[in-house]
């Protein structure tokens, strides 16, 4: 496998699965299937630019703490870099690099003119006050001022960040350059040029991918038993939309654990309950508490991991009972587990397809901002659905034509498009 000279190796540990190595493995598979030139593959295996910054921040108690932030720009052959900003204690440079690479293939697969990037700060946002988080976000943005911009690199929310952090990033960038630049981020509040429909977009895309996959198997969405790990931006929206479409959402979870009801949970009522109980799910009337390990092994038709990487691994893959696994999170199924699911005939909807609704609406937000013309939510959802359904069926056709699994089909489409653009542009100088 080709690896990047820009990234430090992580200490080897048998239990640890490196997300960047895993991303390179999928790229290698696509490279073999497409018979890509070794030089092209080497270029695509390494991020173009890696920025690591030191973030000194004054805490509310007067102490100074120094955090570390990253922004990795994987490839901008198709257009400006695009990717989320993650605040989580497990953030590492190799993880951010893997996520940046996934963004490149995702944008290419969906046919949107962006390259891939990702950013992150290793911190637990729950341990900081709002004022501290604002200072951290503003310092991080200032450190990246020369590396981001509406035609350079456009951050968005990811795990641990939301419209609030995007507003701080947009304001900091604008103050530094001396005029308002709403297009520097997407996923921002509506008041400063955010798009209607963005908040639910990734979850809506997941619902569309699941609906199309069920249709492929000749099954209706109504009555389908769904289990969702993670009840945040993505998992929460997917749960609500699947519930509204008639699916039975049997279980959902947070990092601290989950809840289960064999008959299906009332998701709108659960949202209200979580808002009233400090986002805790346990104790929701009519449900029983379960662990995340138990959740992944529940009998169901569709399993949706919507939290973090490597949740379904060689250790627990045999317990998965679903016939469809929709990767709402990025990289939730490890390489070994992916192969095992494929052997068992489980249909895995890969992250670069299943969770692409978010970047599609980010793109629509950017387009609306650049044209100073804002659409109603119905139009945003319609345009997004069109791009998602189109990409889904291109993956189905590719899988059929080449007799390959869904993930490889999606990768060959995404990687192939970037490789072709690289060849057409030629190598500078
Ligand atoms: P979020 O922070 O809003 O939510 C994450 C959820 O996962 C929370 O409910 C958290 O409690 C839960 N969680 C954390 N660790 C867990 C564990 N070990 N077991 C079970 N639950 C756990 O984040 P998000 O924005 O919803 O992102 C979730 C995933 O979706 C990430 O992989 C992210 O990269 C991916 N994604 C997000 C977007 C987006 O638009 N936000 C777009 C594409 C992909």
Protein traits:
429 residues, Rossmann fold, alpha/beta, 12 strands, five-stranded mixed sheet, binds nicotinamide-adenine-dinucleotide, seven-stranded mixed sheet
Summarize the helices and strands and which ones pair or pack.
Elements: H1 19-34, H2 38-45, E1 49-58, E2 64-75, E3 81-88, H3 93-110, E4 115-122, H4 130-143, E5 153-157, H5 163-177, H6 201-216, E6 225-229, H7 233-244, E7 248-254, E8 257-260, H8 267-276, E9 288-290, H9 292-296, E10 302-305, E11 324-326, H10 335-343, E12 347-349, H11 351-354, H12 357-371, H13 377-402, H14 406-425
Parallel strand pairs: 3-4, 3-5, 6-7, 6-10, 10-11, 11-12
Antiparallel strand pairs: 1-2, 2-4, 7-8, 8-9
Helix pairs in contact: 1-2, 1-3, 1-14, 3-14, 4-5, 6-7, 6-12, 6-13, 12-13, 13-14
Bound molecules: nicotinamide-adenine-dinucleotide.
Question: Any overview of this molecule?
Answer:
The chain is α/β, with parallel strands linked by helices. Among the domains are: 47-179, 3-Layer(aba) Sandwich (Rossmann fold), CATH 3.40.50; 201-354, NAD(P)-binding Rossmann-like Domain (Rossmann fold). 44% of the residues lie in helices and 17% in strands. The chain contains 14 helices and 12 strands. The protein has helices at residues 19-34, 38-45, 93-110, 130-143, 163-177, 201-216, 233-244, 267-276, 292-296, 335-343, 351-354, 357-371, 377-402, 406-425, and strands at residues 49-58, 64-75, 81-88, 115-122, 153-157, 225-229, 248-254, 257-260, 288-290, 302-305, 324-326, 347-349. The strands form 2 sheets. Strands 9-8-7-6-10-11-12 form a 7-stranded mixed beta sheet, with helices on both faces. Strand 1 and strand 2 (64-75) form a beta hairpin. Helix 12 crosses helix 13. The longest helix is centred in the last third of the chain and has 26 residues, at 377-402. The protein is globular, with a radius of gyration of 21 Å. The model has no long low-confidence stretch (mean pLDDT 95). Bound molecules: nicotinamide-adenine-dinucleotide. The site of nicotinamide-adenine-dinucleotide (NAD) has 24 residues, from helix 7 and strand 7.
């Amino acid at each position: 496998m080709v690896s990047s000279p820009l990234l430090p190796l992580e200490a080897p540990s048998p239990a640890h699965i490196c997300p960047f190595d895993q991303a390179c493995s999928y790229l290698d598979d696509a490279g073999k299937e497409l018979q890509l030139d070794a030089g092209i593959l080497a270029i695509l295996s390494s991020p173009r630019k890696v920025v690591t910054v030191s973030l000194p921040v004054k805490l509310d108690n007067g102490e100074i703490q120094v955090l570390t932030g990253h922004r990795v720009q994987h490839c901008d052959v198709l257009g400006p870099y695009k990717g989320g900003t993650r605040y989580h204690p497990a953030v590492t440079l190799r993880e951010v690099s893997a996520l940046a690479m996934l963004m490149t293939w995702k944008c290419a697969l969906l046919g949107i003119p962006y390259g891939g990037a990702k950013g992150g700060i290793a911190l637990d946002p729950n341990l900081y006050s709002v004022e501290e988080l604002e200072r951290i976000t503003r310092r991080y943005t200032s450190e990246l001022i020369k590396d981001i911009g509406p035609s350079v690199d456009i951050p968005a929310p990811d795990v641990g960040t939301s419209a609030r952090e995007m507003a701080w990033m947009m304001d900091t960038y604008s103050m530094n350059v001396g005029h308002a630049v709403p297009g520097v981020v997407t996923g921002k509040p509506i008041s400063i040029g955010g798009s209607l429909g963005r908040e639910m977009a990734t979850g809506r895309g997941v619902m569309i991918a699941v609906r199309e996959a069920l249709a492929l198997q000749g099954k209706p969405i109504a009555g389908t038993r769904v289990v969702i790990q993670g009840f945040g931006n993505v998992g929460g929206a997917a749960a609500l939309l699947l519930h509204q479409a008639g699916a039975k959402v049997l279980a959902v979870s947070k990092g601290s654990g989950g809840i289960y009801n064999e008959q299906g949970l009332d998701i709108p009522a659960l949202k209200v309950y979580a808002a009233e109980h400090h986002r805790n799910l346990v104790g929701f009337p009519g449900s029983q508490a379960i662990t995340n390990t138990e959740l992944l092994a529940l009998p169901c038709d569709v399993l949706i991991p919507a939290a973090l990487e490597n949740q379904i691994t060689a250790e627990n893959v045999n317990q998965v009972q679903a016939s469809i696994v929709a990767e709402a999170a990025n990289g939730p199924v490890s390489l070994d587990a992916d192969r095992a699911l494929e052997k068992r005939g489980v249909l895995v909807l890969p992250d670069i397809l299943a969770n692409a609704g978010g970047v599609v609406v980010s793109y629509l937000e950017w387009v609306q901002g650049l044209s100073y013309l804002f659409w109603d939510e119905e139009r945003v959802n319609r345009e997004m659905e069109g791009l998602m359904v189109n990409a889904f069926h291109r993956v189905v056709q590719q899988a059929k034509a080449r007799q390959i699994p869904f993930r490889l089909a999606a990768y060959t489409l995404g990687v192939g498009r970037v490789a072709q653009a690289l060849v057409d542009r030629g190598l500078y100088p």
